[in-house]
Amino acid sequence: MYKFAHLADCHLGAFRDSVLRNLNLDAFNWAMDKCIEERVDFIVISGDLFDNNLPDTAVLNSAVRKMKQVRDNGIEIYAIYGSHDYSISKTSMIDVLNSAGLFTKVGNVREIDNKRTLEFVVDKKTGAKISGLSAQKKGMEKNLYESLDMSNLENEDGFKIFMFHSTIEELKPNSLSFLEAIPLSYLPKNFAYYAGGHVHLKRVEKRNGTIAYPGPLFGYDYRDLENSARGEKRGFFIVEFNRSVSSHRFVEIEHPEIILLEYDANDKPASKASEEMEDMIKKVDFQNKIVLFKVEGELSSGKPSDIDFSRLKNCILENNALTVYMSRNNLTAKDLEEIKVVGETKEEIESRIFEESIKKIKIENEKLRGENGVNLSLNLLSAMKEENLGGKKTDYDKKMVEKGMKVLDL
Ligand SMILES: [Mn+2]
Predict the structure, then answer these.
(1) Separation of 293 CA from ligand 1 center, angstroms?
(2) What residue spans define the domains of the chain?
């Protein structure tokens, strides 16, 4: 009997908040230690190992050190690109670590007998044959599925694993019905196990657990953490096999408790909402907890900015919370009127939105008023529109700030 671990969506390097970034890394290290303890034969990581294609070097160093330890214990690692660590020019950190021999990137596209198809990698220890298809940005790998001839994969004998990082129509949770997905029929047939990645909302296990999404190891954004707080367990699968899958189980990751505080500010003046939230905070024990604070609703008077959120956040931290993650995107106010404009083109609409918005605020600085203000806003918007094509996030951020300063003449 052999066994392997199936992970996906680790998103190492995610979160601006250093506490959350480190907890995410801890979850990965915990999972790798568990794989060593369980003596798995190999590990498959179905995409989004990193949160972007060139992750922060401190995070990278820690993850590489841990994966080296896994390899030194005789455990091979197989990976594909996710939608986050994908690189169009094949210069992602995934490629670097593949070149360095830390793990094997599977799913190379090859021309065999005039047909484009995918290669297999054979795991030496177990003989398992592993193939897969990397993700591209925005689900673009769909075209590749349509253009490939999978018959050689289907006809190959032995214990076969197919790794993928895409939403599959028949497997997606109901609440994701709006999401674009590829049909199950796109995956090659006759594989013993289909190791999925990309679906974060919840873990999915179908066909006796032989086609599955483990979900994220810890999470990469507010939504993931909110789902965890609501009871969704996070972790990875351990699958045992001989000629076929004989058992599979889910291993839950250990991490600090995540609690969700929800406040409905609807129909309340900003001052009253502030008081009530402060009272609410006083009643909860935050010791060693990750606190999610979600505020929603339409204030009857005052503005969201009248509420001192940084003070509320500090109150929670003073009560020994590990960290606080605020969500107040859905907090609005009656006083904030909606701006409605009509325009033929995107440019026209953008320009009119700025015109109307500027009329609504009192501005002392001549440079920011009226037409000047509109032009400045448009220039700033166009400077910010450049997409980050595969570069390092910190370089991109720096460039954006420089461009912004130049437009603002600062
Ligand atoms: Mn992901």
Answers:
(1) 23
(2) 2-252, 258-333, 346-408
